[in-house]
# Entry
Amino acid sequence: MRYFLIAGEASGDLHAAHLIHSLREQDPEAEFRFYGGDMMAAEAPGLLRHYRTLAYMGIIAVVQHLPEILRGMRQCREDISNFRPDAVILVDYAGFNLRIARYVHDAAICPVFYYIAPKLWAWKEGRIKQIKRYVDHLYSILPFEKEFFEQKHGYPITYVGNPTADEIHAFVETSGKPQTDGKTIALLPGSRHQEVRDNLSRMLRAVSSLPEKGFRIAVAAAPALPRHFYEQIVAQSPLQAGQVEIVDNQTYKLLSHAAAALVTSGTATLETALMRVPQVVCYYTRFGSIVALLRKLLIKVKHISLVNLIADAEVVPELVANEMTPENVRQHLMTILPNGTRREEMLAGYEKVAQRIGEAGAPERCAANIIKRLKQ
# Structure
């Protein structure tokens, strides 16, 4: 069968790559076309457009690049129409993907499946109408989403497990159980240009005194961003040359040695938790006081990190908008370093999160269900 996939950022590229792998195993004659990234391209030929040309975050960035985004959307519709797939599989990236879902549905090209649901439970809940109308079936990777979609909105979905558990399991199988060196502080500032620029400089200021105490500072670099971008931010920080290591495409290896981490909210918070690394969740945005007010008015959940959302409790501290200052970050970080007052409590909370997620096998279960539905 023929599959067209769309992923719009680094984490979506990773999850979609594993889904492509599972589809190929269960459907040996599968053909693929996709909008995505390097990891998807490594699994199968068919990359039509890289996500870095469309992945813009924030109103200002979206407006500035709107012509390019609209061109990408037109090209995507044309590519789907020309390929005539048996299924379109959307991976997160709701603003773009829901418009494509409408096109595919209205043109009656093929079924539309959604893998990794848009976070409607946090904001823009009204998009549920588009999901119901244009998406044939949705595959959830967060256990609490079943209640939101099925009980609150009457839309049946399938929880397949969380692919991050698969990725961590695969890493541990090949590299061994994580063993912290007690001295590495990992900084995971995000995967998009804007969020890295906004967060990394503050993270570096927060840890600027730790190298003097024997700690190693390491920054996880996103694959879609050039190394010199990180080097410029580090050069402008209080840290001396040689005190910060930039680690390319080895986030799990970095976390496997880390004593603690500063993490920008997103999939990375769950990865860090499943690697059993204590963390402080940091998400700075410009106009922090305004964002903090809008968060209270618009965001419908108590937490922003996947760790706390899955646990339904504050397992990790969340410093968002104007709360994300170097001083606040440093204060929380000191409590989770070895022998810190909150370290063991946080690690115990991670065990509850892992139990709620369940066993590995999300991409295999999703692929099997998609193929079954197409055959029916």
